[in-house]
Every structure is written in structure tokens, then in C-alpha cells.
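Long-time lurker, first post. I've been practising inverse folding by hand and with some scripts of my own, and I keep getting stuck on stretches where the C-alpha cells seem ambiguous. Below is the full C-alpha cell string for one chain I'm working on. Before anyone asks, I'm not after the true native sequence, just a reasonable design that respects the backbone. If someone could post their per-position residues I'd love to compare against what I wrote down in my notebook.
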């Protein structure tokens, strides 16, 4: 019995547990220290890693990873004051943090060698960083699993997956004071703002890929440690504080930028995220597969372009912003009702085909309303250009304004406007999802026949979801037209290399987590930011996008931020009402029972 326990609880490498912990901690400390050395003698590599005592570029990523690994390793050693860092697993997050640090460091060294022409371009500091990161990873691989398996792993891959298995969240020994919980929420959102700002300001190409590798492994490390679950508990306990902190953190982004180079990316992310939230009402809550949803964004954009004072507008109208906003939302709502009324009696694939057809009909119709093949309304392929900048209460969005002594240029102004629009859409989504109508949508999504048998008017509620989703897309389309200053048919396709398009919008909802509030926001941010920063892979973006979706459906079909129901659907436990204990238990969804006939 003793021999069996020893073989099932050891790590991948044959080291005593305490030796493995000390090796990991020492290696992490050494890795962090090497960021103060020069990694290359040439300043041609982005970030200029030639300085001593001043980490720069991807050295900052390695420094962050080394410190994170050191803190997690110290927590596993039982160091007083640090045990709160691992309320769930201890060894799995340490291994993931070590792997994140190793991946970022070795990718940086490899990129230096490839871009500059060989290992000769590395300084001794670079070799020291690679050696220290490797030592850290080897020590972490020798750590035992947090939860010993019931049966011994048959091969090294199974032993690795056992090491990375999630552990249930342990109960808190004593609750934090209210002020401490509020400070924790504020600090978490501030850290998120810093991480996002660093990522979006990172040079395109290798530096961003290194950052992406680190984030892809560091976030699971925090999840395995239980810190994200703890933060989720706090945000549910203090919803108002959490929403305020999120709003302030997002609104502070333009204050961190010197130019509009990356602020425009932030503004487009918010537009994309707002439209994805509208689609989440249709797909995530009501369960209606809409493949032509980008057309409603186009309806709002064209409606706003026609009444916003563009010299190329066939109507020659110039409404104030609030009227143009209502016009765009109302036009999309009307189109949603007109399209939904005759088609929403269809289900499944048939509904998807009809909505796909509507999206293409809209694009072709905008092309043909050019005065030659149809009435002169949209100028055909030329679109409606020269849409003037917004002006609200004397505030011209096309001019630079000072906020807290910091100049905010055109796209920074539109970014702040989109913060308000996104906050409005978030409020509408939250209220709708928590209402009786929202619960009826979920009932229809889960089993329409049973919902109808319980007295729910399926057709009317599906039409309401379709109309609400269309109106929210039209709302975002109005601002989108002013941000890009033009509305053309080619902006609103089913699929293409650049969002927004229907395929990317649907992927954002699925990637983030259908039916959740934060899921589509995260999915939209990732799907817009990554292609924008990896422009050198433009010819392969759709290929990589397809591969990523396949991997997501294989390993995380419920999305990055799923609700409890989706987790139970995709992670069977062999029992009717007991969830997998490895799954996190967010407080947002409770009382869900899964029964299978």
C-alpha cells in the first residue's frame, strides 16, 4: 500500500517534494533576476533588450512570470502571509506559472536568434535567463499532483494531466472585512487594465506572440490556484462595486495612451463587443442560430449615415446624435421584426439558412441601390463617405480635449462614448436575462416543446429576442458609422479576414461563453485584438481561426467563461445531480439539476 501511494503521488521527475519546491522557488527567483541583465547586444530586436538593470519589452513578461512563480512556490512552502494565494490547488498553478515563464523566455530567445541571425546575438544574460527558466520548469515538473489519482497514470502524458488537474476551492478560514474585499476588487481590475494596456501597446509580431503565450498559461495558473474563483465570489457579493470598478478601469484606458494608434483598436473592440452582446441575446439566451446578424449592424450604420449630415447622403438630413442613435436602433428593430415574423416559425438549421440569406441580401441590396440598378440611396460600392464627427452639447468628437490634464484625441473620444453605449447594453442584457422574459428565453432554448407545454408563447418571445438583438446591433452600428466615417457594403459580410462579420460575431459569443454577460465581451476583445496585432499572419488568419475553433470545441466546448448549466452539459460525472468536483462553482448560477433520459 505504501509503494502504491508513493508511485501515484510523485511528479514527472524523481525529486523529493521539498527539494522540488525549493528548486522551483530558487529557479523563479533567478529567472526574475536575469531580467536585469542584457539579453542581446543588438537594439534591432523590438523592445531593446540591451540594457542592464532596466527590464524592457518581453523581459517584463519574464519578470512578471518569475515573480508569480516565486509567490506561488513560496505559498506551497507554507510561508506565512502567502497561503491565501492558493485557496484551491497548490502545485498545479505553480507548474502552469513555471510553464508560462519558460514559454515566454524561450520564445523570446528563439525570436532573437531567428530575427537577428543566430545564437551569436545572445548575451550571457540571455543564456542565464533560459537556464533559470528551464530549472524552474524542471523543479515544477517534480511536484506531486494536488489530488492523487484513484488509479496510477499509465504514461507520462496522463501523469502531466494529473498534475494539472483542478482542485476544489477550500472554504475561507475567516472572512475579509468589507473594505478589504472592495480594495481587492479594485486592485484586480487595476491589474487587468495594466495587463491589457501592456498587451495592446506591445509591438506587433514576436513581442505580442510572447505576451500571448504567457497570458494563455498564466490565466489558467490563476484559475487553478482558485484566485479567479475567489474574485468571482467577491464580485457577486459586491456587484455595484465590481461594475463601477470595471467601468472606471475601462474608461481609464485612453488616459494611458499618447496617440490614437491603439485607442482606435479599443474603440472597435467595444463596438464589436456591444454587437456580440446583442447576438448573445439571440443565440445565448433564446437559442436562435442567426448567421446574418452583422446585417443589423449595417442597417444601423447606413441609417445613421443617411441622417448624420454626410454630403453624399441621398436624404440630405443632419439629425443630432441622439436622434441619429434612435434612428439607427429603430431601423434595425423594424428590420428585425420584418425578417423575424415570417421566419421564426422555423427551427435549427432552417432558421440559420434563412438568416444567412438575409445577411447576403442586405449586402447585395446596398450594392444595387446606386442609381443605376436601383434607386440612388446608398451610392453602391462607394458607400456613404465623409460622415461628420459627432458633436454633443458643444463637445466635438473630432477635436482633441484635455481630461485630467491628459490630451484625448478623436478615437479616444469615441472610445469613451462607446464605454457609455456598452454600459447601456450591459444594463439591458442584465435586466433582460434576469427577468421573467429572460427565464422564458432560457426555457425555450433548453426545450421549446416543454416550454410551450408550460404556457410560454414561443413565437412571440422568440420575435422579441430577435427584435431586441437587432436594436442593440443598430445602436452600435450608429457609432460604428461615425468612427470609420463611412458605410460601405463590404464592411458587413458573413465571413472575412477582419471583424466585424457574422462568423466572427458568432465565434465571439461561443468563445466567451453563450448566455453569460462577460463571455462575449472577452471573446470579442480576443477576436479583434489578436488579428489586429498579428497582421503579419493576415494570409493565414482564417486558417488559424478555424484551427483555434476546432481546439476550443475539443477542449473547452462551454467557452472561456461558461455558466454553470453549460459546464454540467459538457462535463459528465456519472451522477444525475452531482457536478464534477473539479469544476468551479460560480455563485451566479445555482440550483441547476441535470437529468438525462
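-- Answer (accepted) --
I ran through it position by position. Result:
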Amino acid at each position: 500500500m505504501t509503494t502504491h501511494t508513493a508511485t501515484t503521488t510523485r511528479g514527472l521527475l524523481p525529486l523529493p517534494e521539498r527539494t522540488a519546491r525549493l528548486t522551483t522557488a530558487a529557479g523563479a527567483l533567478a529567472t526574475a533576476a536575469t531580467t536585469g541583465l542584457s539579453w542581446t547586444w543588438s537594439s534591432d530586436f523590438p523592445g531593446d533588450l540591451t540594457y542592464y538593470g532596466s527590464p524592457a519589452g518581453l523581459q517584463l513578461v519574464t519578470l512578471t512570470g518569475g515573480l508569480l512563480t516565486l509567490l506561488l512556490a513560496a505559498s506551497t512552502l507554507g510561508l506565512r502571509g502567502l497561503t491565501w494565494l492558493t485557496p484551491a490547488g497548490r502545485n498545479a498553478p505553480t507548474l502552469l506559472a513555471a510553464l508560462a515563464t519558460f514559454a515566454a523566455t524561450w520564445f523570446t530567445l528563439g525570436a532573437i536568434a531567428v530575427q537577428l541571425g543566430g545564437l551569436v546575438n545572445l548575451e550571457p544574460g540571455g543564456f542565464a535567463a533560459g537556464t533559470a527558466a528551464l530549472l524552474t520548469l524542471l523543479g515544477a515538473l517534480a511536484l506531486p499532483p494536488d489530488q492523487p489519482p484513484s488509479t496510477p497514470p499509465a504514461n507520462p502524458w496522463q501523469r502531466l494531466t494529473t498534475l494539472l488537474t483542478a482542485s476544489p476551492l477550500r472554504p475561507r478560514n475567516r472572512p475579509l472585512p468589507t473594505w478589504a474585499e472592495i480594495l481587492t476588487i479594485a486592485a484586480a481590475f487595476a491589474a487587468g487594465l495594466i495587463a491589457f494596456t501592456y498587451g495592446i501597446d506591445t509591438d506587433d509580431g514576436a513581442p505580442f506572440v510572447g505576451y500571448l503565450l504567457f497570458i494563455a498559461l498564466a490565466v489558467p495558473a490563476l484559475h487553478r490556484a482558485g484566485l479567479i474563483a475567489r474574485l468571482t465570489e467577491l464580485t457577486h457579493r459586491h456587484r455595484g462595486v465590481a461594475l463601477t470598478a470595471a467601468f472606471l478601469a475601462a474608461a481609464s484606458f485612453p488616459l494611458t495612451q499618447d496617440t490614437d494608434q491603439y485607442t482606435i483598436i479599443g474603440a472597435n473592440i467595444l463596438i464589436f463587443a456591444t454587437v456580440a452582446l446583442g447576438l448573445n441575446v439571440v443565440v445565448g439566451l433564446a437559442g436562435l442560430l442567426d448567421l446574418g446578424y452583422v446585417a443589423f449592424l449595417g442597417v444601423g450604420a447606413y441609417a445613421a449615415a443617411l441622417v448624420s449630415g454626410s454630403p453624399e447622403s441621398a436624404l440630405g438630413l443632419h439629425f443630432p446624435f441622439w436622434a441619429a442613435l434612435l434612428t439607427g436602433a429603430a431601423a434595425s428593430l423594424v428590420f428585425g421584426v420584418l425578417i423575424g415574423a415570417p421566419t421564426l416559425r422555423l427551427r435549427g438549421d432552417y432558421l440559420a439558412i434563412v438568416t444567412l440569406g438575409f445577411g447576403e441580401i442586405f449586402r447585395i441590396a446596398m450594392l444595387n441601390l446606386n442609381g443605376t440598378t436601383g434607386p440612388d440611396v446608398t451610392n453602391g460600392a462607394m458607400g456613404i463617405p465623409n460622415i461628420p464627427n459627432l458633436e454633443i452639447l458643444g463637445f466635438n468628437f473630432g477635436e482633441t480635449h484635455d481630461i485630467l490634464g491628459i490630451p484625448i484625441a478623436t478615437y479616444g473620444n469615441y472610445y469613451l462614448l462607446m464605454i457609455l453605449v456598452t454600459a447601456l447594453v450591459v444594463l439591458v442584457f442584465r435586466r433582460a436575462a434576469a427577468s421573467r422574459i429572460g427565464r422564458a428565453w432560457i426555457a425555450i432554448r433548453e426545450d421549446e416543446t416543454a416550454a410551450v407545454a408550460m404556457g410560454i408563447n414561443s413565437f412571440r418571445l422568440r420575435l422579441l429576442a430577435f427584435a431586441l438583438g437587432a436594436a442593440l446591433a443598430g445602436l452600435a452600428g450608429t457609432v460604428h458609422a461615425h468612427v470609420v466615417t463611412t458605410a460601405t457594403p463590404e464592411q458587413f459580410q458573413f465571413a472575412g479576414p477582419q471583424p466585424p462579420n457574422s462568423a466572427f460575431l458568432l465565434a465571439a459569443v461561443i468563445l466567451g461563453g453563450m448566455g453569460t454577460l462577460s463571455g462575449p465581451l472577452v471573446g470579442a476583445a480576443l477576436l479583434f485584438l489578436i488579428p489586429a496585432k498579428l497582421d503579419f499572419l493576415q494570409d493565414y488568419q482564417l486558417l488559424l481561426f478555424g484551427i483555434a475553433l476546432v481546439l476550443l470545441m475539443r477542449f473547452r466546448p462551454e467557452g472561456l467563461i461558461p455558466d454553470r448549466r453549460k459546464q454540467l452539459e459538457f462535463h459528465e460525472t456519472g451522477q444525475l445531480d452531482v457536478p464534477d468536483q473539479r469544476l468551479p462553482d460560480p455563485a451566479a448560477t445555482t440550483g441547476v439539476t441535470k437529468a438525462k433520459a
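A couple of notes from the structure itself: The mean pLDDT is 82. DSSP finds 22 helices and four strands in the chain. Happy to go over any region you disagree with.
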